[in-house]
Amino acid sequence: MCIQFSGIAGNWGLASLACYARTPQSQEKGTFAPGHGTTEGALVLRYNRIPGTDVTVSELGFGVWTVSAGWWGAYSDEQAVNLLRRAYDRGVTFFDTADTYGNGRGETIMRQAFPGADRDDIVIGTKFGYDWESSLGKRREGHTEAAHCFEPAFLERALEGSLRRLGTDRIDVYQMHNVRMEHLLNDDVWTFVDKARQAGRVRSVGVALGPAIGWLEEGKYALEQCPVENVHMIYNALELDPGRELIETARATGKSLLVRVPHSSGMLEGHYTEETEFPEGDHRRHRPRAWLVNGVKKVRQLGFLTEENRSTLGQAALRYVLREPEVVSALPNIYDADQIDEFSAASDVPDITDAQRARIKDLYEANYGLPREQEAGVASR
Q: Cα 169 vs. chain centroid, distance in angstroms?
């Protein structure tokens, strides 16, 4: 299919015609998918196969959490569906959600956006492990987690519930949600997952680390010891650890990684100032002020990426995380249509060079020349 962009090509120095083709489930890492009729300079998305599976994902994914859980502001079903469809029209095929997002809403929105035959054109990732239904109607303070549950009967109900809400008969990427080591050591989980695979209800299995950045031990154990094809982690040019070690582990084990928060909760889009204020209900409002002030100072030192690569900072941030062969898809926090247009053009900008990667590493190791303060806050789920 060919998409005509209006009013954006001049801003990015890119051609105005973008062509996309849906790709078969056999593409390797970095496969370009130009549609028929593509002209020189046209935009193309890249698609990557998850090793050990027949599941192929667009390198730009869409994290449904942003538009379904209320942590980035309120979105009506119509608004959320419109953003999902716009991403699809720009070539995005991988949509990642969870049963707990919006108490099931993150899955029902997917069914609304991609009904009927459209389901076969996309790859759905969802997550399991939180007993969120037991807490419905009960007050949970702030953004605290629901209780985990990995009892066999609960797991079966969770899978059936996700399939029903999604309106599908299979889940392409099924992930344990924000696991602890005790969950990875639970044999009941892997027995359940194996049965779900054999029944064709699950096509690939992964582990999502969180809720905040960290969980190195769990990530390494999952990659080295568990029957999973991917691990889902936080990684970006401002937050290299523990992602760097997990990348090395994925490389050694031949497994893949999904990356969320590639823009460090919007910081690496380059639009914040020290005076930026976030609205009520936005999780960034609850972060330490040092996260904003120091983040803005760090971002100023990354201006070389936009100058040298003739791209936006948001596009360069995506190319940074996707530079690693083990990273098959990056899932930015998408909350408006302009972001979709910008990020979907990232496949057409230069890759990060070795010299640029080394410069980012040096800046990170020196904390960008800033005092080390408490900057961590609530991260993407």
A: 23
Residue 230, number of CB atoms within 10 A of its CB: 30
DSSP secondary structure code for residue 240 in this structure = -
How buried is residue 296: exposed, middle or buried, by Cβ count under 10 Å (0-12/13-18/19+)? middle
Q: Could you tell me if 67 and 83 are in contact, meaning their C-beta atoms sit under 8 angstroms apart? A: yes
β-partners of residue 232 are: 208, 258
Q: What is the pLDDT of residue 16?
A: 31
**In contact, 379 and 234? CB cutoff 8 Å:** yes
Cα-Cα-Cα-Cα dihedral sign, residues 27, 33, 36, 38: negative
Query: Which ranges of the chain have pLDDT less than 50?
Result: 1-27, 34-42, 139-142, 378-380
What are the residues facing 128 on neighbouring strands? 176
Helix (H, G, I), strand (E, B) or coil at 49: strand
How far the first Cα of the chain sits from its last, in Å, is: 33
**CB neighbours of residue 335 within 10 Å:** 17
Q: What is the pLDDT, as a whole number, of residue 291?
A: 87
Burial class for 186, CB neighbours closer than 10 Å (0-12, 13-18, 19+) = middle
Looking up tokens 């910081």, which residue turns up?
267
Distance of CA 137 to the CA centre of its chain: 29
Give me the amino acid identity at 213. Answer: I
Distance CA 171, CA 165 (A): 12
For 117, phi then psi, to 5°, come to: -65, -25
Q: How many helices (H) and strands (E) does the chain have?
A: 14, 13
pTM recorded for the entire structure: 0.88
Reference 278, options 113, 71, 120; nearest CA is: 71
Taken in order of first residue, the domains within the chain and their CATH numbers are 46-369 (3.20.20.100)
Q: Say if CB 98 and CB 71 are below 8 A apart.
A: no
Assigned token pair, 57: 């994902």
Separation CA 45–CA 30 (nearest Å): 9
What is the residue type of 204? S
User: What pLDDT, on a 0 to 100 scale, did the predictor assign at position 8?
Assistant: 30
Task: Determine contact, residues 27/95, Cβ cutoff 8 Å.
Answer: no
What are the pLDDT digits (tens) for 218-259? 999 999 999 999 999 999 999 999 999 999 999 999 999 999
Phi and psi torsions of 38, nearest 5°: -65, 135
